Amino acid sequence: MTASPPSSHPMPERTPEPSPENRPPAGPTPFQVYTARAVALRRDNIDTDQIVPAEFCKRVTKSGYADALFARWRKEPDFIVDRPEHRGAGVLLAGRNFGIGSSREHAVWALKDGGFRVVIATGFGDIFQRNAMNNGLLPVDQPLSVVELLMAEVERDPEREITVDLVNCRLTTGRHEGADGWVFAVNERARQLLLKGQDAISATLQRDASIARYEAGRPDWLPTLRPTD
To answer: Which of 63, 70, 199, 205 is the most exposed place for a label (fewest CB within 10 A)?
Structure first.
């Protein structure tokens, strides 16, 4: 695995092609068992500025970032993510310490707009990991030996699919690992929200009736926030 190059290169003249056939919805959607082809990005210490450069963070929407994903690296000849055999891949394989650096949520939005629903790596930045789970992108932490095996497999056969089972927290490819696959750990609250296709706001709104009953029973003398025209 090689270290990621500095992120001070000039911006590329072209933008990446989106993957509409594999692109996840912008909002929360249930994640239970997901199977897709993968691409191996053999770089360590990929930070959020390399995932999406800061100049793209001026946008005020949560979607439309396909052109921002790895924007500087896409100027490199034959950049792995741009190769035709990896078009439509939904699983990104990376090295150590993925998503370190600044807390920009745009990095997650760009990965989703680029068609990815899962990132498998050895270690993640803490804030990136939380942002990913909150936005329907599943970070799967695996030992380097497992990541290397998966990378080698998809490099030999770009059509090889990886199955990520969030119900049982298992990862399989149908080869090498036997019947049980590899186990991964996920924060249980975040896992439940992903399984149901919810985020923190939609989960809170499910308790709207209970919140209304509580508010109705509050003493009048307590402070109250009311909408204004």
So the answer is: 205
Angle at 226 between CA 222 and CA 27, to 5 degrees: 120
For residue 116, give both structure tokens: 């990815």
Helices (H), 15-84: 48-51
pTM attached to this predicted model: 0.80
Task: Please state, in angstroms and rounded to a whole number, the distance separating the CA atoms of residues 183 and 203.
Answer: 27
Classify strands 170-172 and 161-165 as parallel, antiparallel or unpaired.
antiparallel
> Which residues in the chain land under pLDDT 50?
7-25, 177
As beta bridge partners, residue 226 has none
Residue 172, SS3 per DSSP: strand
List, in order, residues 6 or more apart from 68 with CB less than 8 Å away. 52, 53, 56, 106, 110, 113
Q: Which amino acid is residue 100, in one-letter code?
A: I
Taking the CA atoms of the chain, what radius of gyration do you get in angstroms? 20
Output the pLDDT for position 27. 55
Question: Tokens in use for 122?
Answer: 């050895």
Question: With helix as H, strand as E and coil as C, how does 128-166 read?
Answer: HHHHHHHCCCEEEECCHHHHHHHHHHHHHCCCCEEEEEC
